[in-house]
Amino acid sequence: MSSEDEEAWASPSLGLSPLSRVRLDELLQELLDRVGEVVTSRERLRSLLDAVVTIGSGLELRGVLTRIVEAACSLIGSRYGALGVIGPDRTLVEFITHGISPDLHAKIGDLPHGRGLLGLLIEDPRPVRLPDITKHPNSYGFPPHHPPMHSFLGTPIRIRDQIFGNLYLAEKQGAAEFTQDDEEIAVALAAAAGVAIENARLFATAHRRERWLAATAEITNVLLGQVNRTSALQLVARRAREVAEAQLVLVLLADEETGQLTVEVVDGPAPELEGAVVPASGTAFARAITGTDHVVVDDLGKAATWPAPITTGPALITPLAATDTLHGVLVVAHPSGAASRPEDLPMLHTFAGQAALALERARAQDEREQLLLLEDRERIARDLHDVVIQRLFATGLQLQTAAQLATRPDVAQRISGAVDDLDTTIRDIRTAIFELRTPANAALRTEIRDLVAAAAEALGFRPELRLDGPIDSAVPDEIRPDLLAVVREALSNTARHARATAVRITVEAVNRRLTVTVVDNGVGASGAQPRGGLVNLRERATLHGGDFAIGPAETTGTRVVWSVPI
């Protein structure tokens, strides 16, 4: 082979001209660039798929949101990232960040509310890509200690047709700004994030519903046994606070006659509210009571006039109603600044229904126990009337017959005394029978006794009291205050003017008439016309169509008689 042939064989041009060789090099470089782009795109696609798998690997909402921000920063090459959750008032209620240390986070202070450039995505939910965030007209600048940021990429996160929040990325690493490919990847990642967030929210809702059902089942188990109203309501309040993750839970019972609500149970940092009385009309509770529907208030402290200040946020108010009977309301209040949870309302309504059933069962058990008690007392009263009193009557008649046959005066006197004792015993037994047949919650007799006992200090001695007839059951409610006022005024006049050493008060409910008789052994009434408190006694009798009289007693002293029909 000649030297010319060797040069031709070793030449890299393979017979190509210098211009052709340049063109071939360009084509080969373009091919290599295209292959690199394909490889890069394939790697980014694989990274995107990995990110989608990563953010969907858990169902706890807070963890899902954190993984979304971390995956976006890693996939797109952003130094800083954040995810802002939009609340019902179209402001940011939660702001999860990445790339900022906890110490720097604390120095920055309050989280943004969604104004300025961040608010632009809220008002117009479309992707935004900027080479320099500081030059945008909506930029408000950064708070103190905030790290400098220039390149910016933001995209909304949608759940179906609703905007859940926005994904924010800043400071592209290795480049001056974010590219169109970065924006497309961020949009794709936001779409996958919407699905992951929806799944996490559905899981959280299902988990909360499960907890509500478990609490409702616990209340149902309580209904199967002996129900104590206070204990049952305390359990209701405690479980409602735990499941709803609330700050304060109140159980208020309604009083139909007064139109007021009484705080029966408090679970939370306001024990001083227990026993407080709140008017229902003119407050946020009115709609829950009249419409038997739940009510949402922004601030429980402003929903009514409370005896002590309440520092809470939004509250859910639902009625405690069962079998067309309203018992009260259940109030679940969240901390100030927290968002209300409408998804809790259906389960809370069901839970409140179970609480109302607990009240119904407690009331039914009380009524049954009271009925058993009254039946037992009725049996005792019947035995006393049909057996004991009849025997005493028979014994008294026999003694009266024996007294007529007695020849010695002292024997006849003793027998007559025994008959009088039997009469007194019969009268006491009749009084006991009336008391036995009185409802257990009636307390008029007790109030009269307490009133007479309290007058003993002013009189210097204890007055004699006699109660006859079904006073507790026969005296109407509208006459009871006047009856007590009459006894109080008569004893007061005796203590101030009579200078008596003995007073006998008789209260009788006989033949559909209530009569109060007060007799003392004092100096007697003057002949002047009644005035002052005595005039009040006459007016109280006239008000009920009755009579009032004052005069001398049989021997000495004064006799006051106040009588009204019943």
From TrEMBL:
The keyword Transmembrane helix does not apply. Residues 60-207, 228-369 form the GAF domain. One of its GO terms (cellular component) is membrane. Keywords: Kinase, Transferase, Two-component regulatory system. SUPFAM superfamilies: ATPase domain of HSP90 chaperone/DNA topoisomerase II/histidine kinase, GAF domain-like. Transmembrane segments: none annotated. Pfam families: GAF_2 (PF13185), GAF_3 (PF13492), HATPase_c (PF02518), HisKA_3 (PF07730). GO terms for molecular function: phosphorelay sensor kinase activity; protein dimerization activity. It comes from the Bacteria. This is Putative histidine kinase response regulator.
